[in-house]
Structure formats: C-alpha cells, structure tokens
Amino acid sequence: MLGLLRELDPKAAFLHWIDEGDAADLRFSGNGKDARWALDGLDGVDIVVQPDEPRWKRLFVADMDSTIIGQECIDELADYAGLKEKVARITERAMQGELDFPGALRERVRLLAGLDETELKRCLNERVRVTAGAETLVQTMRAGGSSCLLVSGGFLSFAEPVARTVGFDRVRANRLVFAGGKLSGEVGDPIVDGIAKRDALIEARDGLGLKAEDVLAVGDGANDKLMVEEAGLGIAFRAKPALIEVADAELRHHGLDALLWVQGVRRRDWFRK
Description:
Blueprint (H helix, E strand, L loop, with lengths): L1 H5 L6 E7 L3 E5 L4 H8 L19 E4 L1 H5 L4 H7 L4 H12 L5 H11 L5 H11 L6 H10 L3 E9 H11 L3 E5 L1 E4 L2 E6 L6 H14 L7 E5 L5 H6 L2 E5 L3 H4 L4 E3 L6 H5 L11
Parallel strand pairs: 3-4, 3-8, 4-5, 8-9, 9-10
Antiparallel strand pairs: 1-2, 6-7
C-alpha cells in the first residue's frame, strides 16, 4: 500500500497503527482523489483519504435502509402483501437514480393500500436487523459528545424504533397515512427525498454551530448523494455506483464501526453493551 502511495508522493510514510493489524494511519502530500483511486481495489482493504484535522466528527448523519439496517423496509413490508418482487424492482431503480424518488415512493406506497397496521410491527420484529457495527458507531460517537441524526426516505414507523435501538438522538423520515388501522396508500407531505436529507443535515449542522468538516455522513443510494456531498466526510456504504462516484470514500469490506477507526478511535475505546 505504501509503495502505491509513494508513486504519488515519494515522502509518503507509515505513521502508526490505530489497532495493530486492522487499521493504520499513513501520511502523504498531494491530491486526495488521486490517492484514493491509486489505492482503490486493494483486496479486503477499505481506504479513507482525509485531512489530518478535524479527525473527530461532531455530527453524524446516516441513511437507514441498507445502511443502518440491512433491509429496505418497504420491500420487506410489500412481502406481507405478496408484492415484494414488484416493489423491490421499483426500489432498486430509485436507489440507482433511474427514477424520481418522490414519485417512486408514492407509487410503491399506493401498492400497499389496505395493509393492516399490525403488519408493520410484525415486519419490524421479523425482518429488520441492525447492520454490524452501527450501534457501536453511534453509541461511541454519542458518548464522545457528537449528535447523531437518522434521516430516511423510508418511514417513521420503522425509523423511530430503529433510532431508539441504535442510539440516534434525532430522526427525520416519511409519515405513512393510516385510515381505520390500515394503510391508506398515501404518504404525508413533505416527502423526505435527497434534497430533504441534505437540508436536514444543514439544519442540524447549523443548529449546532458546526462547519462542514465537522460532519460525517453515510448512505448507500442515489438519494443520499446530496447529503453525502454536503458532509465534510461522505461515505458510501455497500453502495450503488451513483453514490460511490461522489463519496469521499467507500466501505466495502468492514462494518460501520470501522468509521471509528477513520476518526482515530482505538477499539479499546469503542462502546460495548
């Protein structure tokens, strides 16, 4: 790895292990994007190129579906209505950036009209699983004084309980409309889309009096692009190409707790239950 960096900067150097054998800091001078692409593709290695300071981020903003949790909630919910394959096809196209997100969301929710409210709780309990490392990341950042915002193009019915489980102190997501204990097929306004995600980040950042470089954001789909670009450090997690193209770095191999190494935090200082 150091040899590849020295092709860009002959003075590139190994600084120290954060956790020996697992995470290390290297230092180099030059263009960060050049370094990222020079090192990209190393087998089993995730690379994050960033300035020396500020290392610790005081605001963490995360997408929920396929990021903080491993599922797309609307796809799993559609399975209870026998429509998973149809809904999942629309979801995939929306996450790739091929469809207008608000329109795709309304189309999918209309397909679920009549589904009983109890099925949402059943789906949450049976299908939704927190991504490896998410709770450790959020709880460690909260313990260090950072604010953590979960912002989702999904639904408050899932986002609020997930936020409580993981430890987020703020939540922004879409509101499903119910009639007589069943889904009406409508979504409350305003829709939380890519623009709303970015705006939620800016609102939280400005409310805390922070600068862009104090913010870490992570997501997986095209509707996370604006949010990830707005953050001082924007991470693509197991992401679609549309997001990888604009993110500062990509996590392909490690869990979300690796973002603590990115911030210089040794494993011995990570949150443990």
